[in-house]
Amino acid sequence: MYICICNSVSHHEIEDAVERGHVSSLSCLRKSLGVGTGCGICLGDARQCLFDAMTRCPQKDTAPNYGTPGEICPNTLVQPGDSS
After folding, report:
1. Which of 24, 55, 51, 29 is nearest to 40 (CA)?
2. Which among 24, 50, 52, 56 is most buried, taking Cβ atoms within 10 Å?
3. What's the predicted TM-score (pTM) here?
4. What are phi and psi of 62, to 5 degrees?
5. Alpha-carbon span 66 to 50, nearest angstrom
6. 41-64 as b/e, with b when 16 or more CB fall inside 10 Å?
7. At what angle do helices 43-56 and 26-33 cross, to 10 degrees?
8. Contact status, residue 57 vs residue 76, Cβ threshold 8 Å
9. Which pLDDT belongs to residue 57?
10. Quick one: which of 74, 69, 83 has its CA closest to 7?
11. Alpha helix locations (H) across the chain?
């Protein structure tokens, strides 16, 4: 199922990114896959998908956070609110 129609991101892509350790927060998800950077309607579903994937992911034993100031995403420096 597509989570973000604007950027053609499916729930499988979000789950895969979590499993590979590429995303650990909504900010990272937005920066790495572009989720929620179009119309933004998908953000609620994206949060839920991220939460579900992180709670199922064996190497992750905590629920996702949704962005902390200056957090580091793999290969990307993310500043909350940065939509560029």
Report:
1. 29
2. 50
3. 0.69
4. -130, 160
5. 10
6. ebbebbbebbebbbeebeeeeeeb
7. 110
8. no
9. 74
10. 83
11. 11-19, 26-33, 43-56
Q: What is the C-alpha to C-alpha distance for residues 43 and 47, in angstroms, rounded to an integer? A: 6
Q: Which residue has the tokens 């499993």?
A: 19
CA 66 to each of CA 1, 24, 56: distance values in angstroms, whole numbers, following the listed order:
22, 8, 17
pLDDT digits (tens, 9 = 90+) for 15-42: 999 988 888 889 999 999 999 999 999 9
How many whole angstroms separate alpha carbon 29 and alpha carbon 35? 6
Nearest to 63 by CA among 26, 35, 31: 26
